């Protein structure tokens, strides 16, 4: 079950090799993104996730905020 | 949006999925580095001075004024033990009765801004509202720095001056 995490835990998981995925559209990703993030927009997850994400490593997803 | 993405990834077989629900806004509000086209543009946190005088609610105004003045400041930020901004002493408040406790002299609940606000936007706001200074805080109210209008306006004007040069270089 996906678990919501805070900023400190994001940084801790990234230090351990987690993958960071922004799920916003590409134009928003191009303007501002967290360091090291890749872009897989929500609507394209089914089509793009294969070969982009490593299923053996943790994955952190984010967008703008919880709204 | 990110919870749906997290659940979809799990359903696709990813077993270790996390949702950073507070997201990009929280990251930027904390003043952490970002990448992308906007990352090259100065933001409030880049221009804010990181070492403004701070004081507590129960200090004597005269003591704070002396400390701020000795450090070359005409403002001080009132914070609690956690660094949360509770008030602001600008020039006008600092010039009050020296024996007043800070709590009675300060401007309570000053407008604060997040670190990621573009400096041009902030400079315009400060000019329109005649703000001498404005605390920059994280989303939970912790002081990051104090932005002086003179600094914000100077940087914004420098950026504006550079813009036509960049346009000329493209032609």
Kindly describe this structure.
The complex is a heterodimer of chains A (67) and B (171). By secondary structure, chain A is of the alpha/beta class. Chain A contains three helices and four strands. Chain A has helices spanning 7-15, 26-31, 45-48, and strands at residues 3-4, 19-22, 38-39, 59-62. Chain A has a three-stranded parallel sheet with strand order 3-2-4, covered by helices on one side. Chain A is globular and about 25 Å long. The mean pLDDT of chain A is 93. With 171 residues, chain B is an alpha+beta fold. Helix content of chain B is 42%, strand content 16%. In chain B, strand 6 (133-137) and strand 7 (143-148) form a beta hairpin. In chain B, helix 7 crosses helix 8 (149-170). Classes of the chains: A alpha/beta (67), B alpha+beta (171). Strand 1 of chain A pairs parallel with strand 1 (17-20) of chain B, so a sheet runs across the interface.
Rg of chain A, Å, rounded: 12 Å
Classify the helix fraction of chain B into a percent range.
40-55%
Order of strands side by side in the largest beta sheet of chain B?
2-3-4-5
Low-pLDDT runs of chain A: none
* Class from secondary-structure proportions of chain A: alpha/beta
Total beta-strand segments of chain B:
7
N-to-C SSE series of chain A? EHEHEHE
How would a crystallographer describe the biggest sheet of chain A? 3 strands, parallel
Quaternary structure type? heterodimer
């Amino acid at each position: 079950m996906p678990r919501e995490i805070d900023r400190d835990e994001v940084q801790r998981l990234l230090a351990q090799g987690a993958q960071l995925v922004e799920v916003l559209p590409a134009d928003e990703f191009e303007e501002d993104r967290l360091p090291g993030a890749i872009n897989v927009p929500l609507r394209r997850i089914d089509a793009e996730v294969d070969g982009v994400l490593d299923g053996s490593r943790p994955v952190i997803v984010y967008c703008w905020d919880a709204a | 949006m990110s919870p749906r993405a997290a659940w979809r990834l799990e359903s696709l077989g990813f077993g270790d999925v996390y949702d950073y629900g507070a997201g990009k806004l929280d990251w930027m509000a904390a003043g952490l580095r970002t990448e992308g086209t906007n990352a090259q543009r100065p933001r409030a946190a880049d221009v804010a001075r990181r070492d403004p005088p701070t004081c507590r609610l129960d200090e004597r105004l005269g003591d704070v004024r002396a400390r701020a003045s000795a450090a070359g400041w005409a403002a001080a930020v009132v914070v609690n033990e956690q660094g949360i901004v509770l008030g602001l002493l600008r020039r006008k408040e600092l010039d009050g009765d020296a024996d007043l406790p800070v709590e009675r002299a300060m401007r309570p609940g000053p407008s604060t801004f997040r670190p990621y606000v573009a400096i041009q936007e902030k400079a315009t706001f400060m000019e329109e509202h005649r703000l001498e200074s404005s605390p920059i805080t994280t989303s939970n109210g912790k002081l990051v720095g104090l932005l002086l209008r003179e600094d914000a306006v100077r940087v914004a004007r420098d950026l504006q001056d550079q813009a036509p040069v960049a346009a000329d270089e493209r032609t």
